[in-house]
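Exercise: predict the fold of this chain.
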Amino acid sequence: MTEINLRFEQAATAAKSLPEKPDNNTLLQLYALFKQGSAGDVSGEKPGFFDFVAVAKYEAWEKLKGLSAEDAMNQYIDLVRKLGGRFED
């Protein structure tokens, strides 16, 4: 496992126990960065209009299309740290 992958996994674990729950926009940003870093560009069909949460997640991830996995991982790590997530470096 590469160093970036290890830090990414540590950040994902730390994100589950942040000192305060982030606002919805920040949660969407965390979700999108995590998905882009772990799965790459958005895939699958866009959820139906009335599934508001799923649509918001899909659209947040879709906005990151083309961002490299490594860049997404680094942005995710930085955001978790900014939010007070604690993990080894």
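Check your answer against the key: The chain has one domain: 3-82.
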